[in-house]
Amino acid sequence: MKKLDPATYRTMPWKNGGGSTTEALVLPPGATLDTFEVRVSFARVATDGPFSCFPGVDRTLVLLSGAGVALSTADDAVVQLRPASRPFVFTGDDACTAALENGPVEDLNIMTRRASHRHHALRVTLDTGRTLTCMGELSLLAVLAGNVLATDGTGELRLGPRDLLTLLPGEAHVVLESASASPADVLVIDITRR
User: Fold this and answer.
1) What does pLDDT average to in each consecutive run of 10 residues of the chain (194 residues)?
2) pTM value?
3) By Cβ atoms counted within 10 A, which residue in 77, 131, 169, 174 is the most buried?
4) What are phi and psi of 180, to 5 degrees?
5) Number of domains in the chain
């Protein structure tokens, strides 16, 4: 298991030029917006506007902070996202526009290139022990709020908000638990190769 924290992340401009994203993980390492196969990032959305198009990419969005955002998708559906909402899954092929409800929001964005990978994200309230096992190419734990203690056969790691824990196939099962009196809000992400 390995911990990634904001000190190691890379900030870069949005593809459409309308803001910036903090890239937490990209595969293969050093890949660009045109060559990545897997990308996990955090973004602050300060104004209404369109999302960047990423043809051939599947996306999942989780709102972390702010009042909320209304997403208008290509089929004219409107999805309301708030910090307590479930992960929103959509395709990077279609146009998507964001309208902020009451000021800026921060989100977590997972993207996988459809030709090579797929991903699944599950939001979990972590209060008692839970085991994380890598079932695909890579498993991630993103801490959305609170603090987490991760323990395997070699030691333990403490994680806070915006930290990621990576687990590769063959690594020991990791036991996760809240590191404080209140539950932690986490996102478990499984990434598999097609």
Assistant:
1) 93 72 94 94 89 92 94 86 93 90 93 97 88 89 94 91 92 86 92 94
2) 0.91
3) 174
4) -140, 180
5) 2
Place of tokens 């899954």: 89
Confirm whether 172 is domain-assigned: yes
3-state class of 178 per DSSP?
A: strand
pLDDT at res. 54: 92
Show the tokens assigned to 122: 């599950």
* Structure tokens, 20: 């910036």
Q: What tokens were used for 74?
A: 């290509």
Contact assessment for residue 27 and residue 110, using Cβ atoms and an 8 Å cutoff: no
- Residue 3, in any domain of the structure: no
| Strand ranges (E), the chain | 2-4, 10-13, 20-27, 38-45, 49-50, 57-65, 69-72, 78-81, 88-91, 97-100, 105-113, 117-126, 130-132, 138-145, 148-152, 155-159, 164-167, 174-178, 184-193
Distance of alpha carbon 161 from alpha carbon 122, whole angstroms? 17
Q: Given this model, what pLDDT does residue 193 score?
A: 93
